[in-house]
């Protein structure tokens, strides 16, 4: 018996463009022998299923069903492919929890907490061999002193919206005189801003997923870019960044990274596939946690598809296992 899966895409932030591309990759690689897939678009205008041969059908949000030519279709589970709000911040997860409908991502609490970079770092702080950059968190509408922050933190800084992804609103600040501009830019995206000391080292990202009941760490990707940092353009424009999967790191470093990544996944009570960004200082030295993405991109150029291929798996099999693990 085929499972009926809703593939949920779109969203209400600037990341909806990436979400649509991610959903296209997922749709192409879901096994049609095992799953009946209905792609549902969520926008500020509404939630719709768009069949190829007719007008779009609005989703009944009372039970997350659709009515196709007089036939009511309900779902066995939801593959959430929305980056940013409301797919990655816990809102949809809470809605589906109330309906008793399983989904492919972390639960509502983990999703909400991990959208806040400051809160996430407070939770993972203390994991063996994991380090965190010194930082300050400021809030719109409350008093803060940039002069004090300039004294407390060494330049360069990374200034970023505390909730958000795809490096939108983020700035690398090399001179203290540019801090105010960077803060203003970040506040356009969020009411909370994180100012962190820059960590010098090599930048990496790694996918972690529970498959067949086991926490699996995918091959690590090293990210190198000629730009100041790995920003939105570098992430999503082919050729701007060099991504090497698997990363050229020593066997013992790889083992240490795997152990830390598994511990982060456990400590944050993750489900489904997540991606952890980190820096190794100096010569594969200290592991500095940057952030975690609980709904990582699945576009043709995204890291997870690269890492799945490097692990010797087909995306088709990967998504099948992911659905079986999270939806049943």
Automatic annotation (TrEMBL):
Q: Where is the ATP-grasp domain?
A: 124-324
What is the UniProt remark on how the cofactor binds and its stoichiometry? Binds 2 magnesium or manganese ions per subunit.
Q: Where does Mg(2+) 1 bind?
A: 277, 291
> Major place of localization?
cytoplasm
Give the positions the UniProt entry annotates as the active site: 15, 166, 302
Q: Name one GO molecular function term.
A: D-alanine-D-alanine ligase activity
This protein's pathway = Cell wall biogenesis; peptidoglycan biosynthesis
- Subcellular location, record wording: Cytoplasm
Instruction: Name the chain's protein.
Output: D-alanine--D-alanine ligase
At the highest ranks, the source species' classification is: Bacteria, Pseudomonadati, Bacteroidota, Sphingobacteriia, Sphingobacteriales
């Amino acid at each position: 018996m085929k499972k009926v899966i809703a593939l949920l895409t779109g969203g209400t932030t600037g990341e909806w463009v990436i979400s649509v591309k991610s959903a296209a990759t997922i749709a192409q690689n879901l096994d049609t022998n095992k799953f009946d897939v209905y792609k549902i678009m969520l926008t500020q205008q509404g939630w719709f299923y768009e069949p190829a041969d007719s007008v779009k059908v609005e989703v009944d949000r009372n039970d997350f069903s659709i009515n196709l030519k007089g036939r009511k279709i309900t779902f066995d589970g939801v593959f959430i492919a929305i980056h940013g709000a409301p797919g990655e911040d816990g809102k949809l997860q809470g809605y589906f929890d109330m309906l008793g409908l399983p989904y492919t991502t972390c639960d509502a609490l983990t999703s909400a907490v991990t959208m806040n970079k400051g809160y996430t770092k407070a939770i993972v702080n203390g994991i063996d061999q994991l380090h965190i950059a010194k930082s300050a968190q400021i809030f719109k509408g409350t008093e803060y002193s940039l002069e004090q922050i300039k004294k407390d933190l060494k330049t360069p800084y990374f200034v970023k919206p505390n909730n958000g992804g795809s490096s939108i609103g983020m700035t690398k600040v090399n001179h203290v005189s540019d801090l105010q501009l960077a803060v203003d830019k970040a506040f356009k995206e969020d009411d909370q801003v994180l100012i962190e000391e820059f960590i010098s080292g090599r930048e990496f990202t790694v996918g972690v997923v529970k498959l067949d009941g086991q926490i699996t760490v995918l091959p690590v990707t090293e990210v190198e870019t000629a730009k100041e940092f790995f920003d939105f353009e570098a992430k999503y424009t082919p050729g701007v960044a060099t991504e090497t999967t698997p990363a050229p790191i020593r066997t013992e470093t790889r083992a240490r990274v795997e152990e830390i990544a598994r511990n982060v996944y456990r400590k944050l009570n993750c489900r489904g596939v997540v991606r952890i960004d980190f820096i190794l200082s100096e010569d594969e030295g200290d592991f500095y946690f940057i952030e975690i993405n609980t709904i990582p991109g699945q576009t043709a150029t995204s890291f997870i598809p690269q890492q799945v291929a490097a692990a010797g798996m087909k995306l088709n099999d990967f998504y099948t296992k992911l659905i079986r693990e999270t939806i049943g």
